[in-house]
Design a protein that fits this description.
By secondary structure, this protein is mainly beta. 8% of the residues lie in helices and 39% in strands. Strands 1, 2, 3, 4 and 9 form a 5-stranded antiparallel β-sheet that branches. Strands 5-8-7-6 form a 4-stranded antiparallel β-sheet, with no helix packed on it. The structure holds zinc ion. The site of zinc ion (ZN) has 5 residues, from loops.
Length: 160
């Protein structure tokens, strides 16, 4: 069967950047399983997987706009050290969960100047075109319950 909205899809993928360095890979680990058509994976990946079948193996080049978006200058902010209540030893590179304009996200400390802490709320992969090597492992119709929940269940999916 072909991948379409409301199918449960399992893939193996290897993600590389423009320099060919591996950023992430499922190969040798669990497959990535998701409910197709729900935006639970990046838009560009969902687009290229649409219509594919089990056994299909291909490479996709996804521009930043269809991956984690462009780098937004306004997501880089300088805030007071007081905002980091209860954290004594703030260092460049530390990451925190925070409520940013788009909702909860992760911010990274990029600079420290006395009481001023500069944080970057851009996704670490923002602004980067991504290359995926993909193999489609399994495609099945999602159950009604999965469609209702907006995620898949079972060994590789969501546990309740
Ligand atoms: Zn559920």
């Amino acid at each position: 069967m072909q991948i379409s909205n409301n199918t449960a899809v399992s893939i193996h993928y290897t993600l590389t950047n423009e320099e060919g360095e591996v950023i992430d890979s499922s190969v040798g680990n669990d497959v990535l399983s998701y409910l197709h058509g729900t935006g639970s994976i990046i838009a560009g990946l969902e687009k290229v997987l649409d219509g594919k079948s089990v056994g299909d193996s291909f490479t996709a080049h996804i521009p930043a706009s269809d991956a984690y978006g462009q780098i937004m200058e306004d997501r880089v902010q300088t805030i007071s050290r007081d905002m980091f209540e209860g954290i004594d030893n703030i260092q460049v590179g530390m990451q925190f969960h925070a409520d940013v304009s788009e909702g909860p996200g992760i911010v990274t400390v990029v600079a420290i100047d006395g009481e001023n802490i500069t944080i970057d709320g851009n996704h670490p992969l923002a602004g980067m075109p991504l290359n995926f090597d993909i193999e489609v492992i399994e495609v099945r119709p999602a159950t009604e319950e999965e469609i209702e929940h907006g995620h898949i269940h079972g060994a590789d999916g969501h546990h309740h």
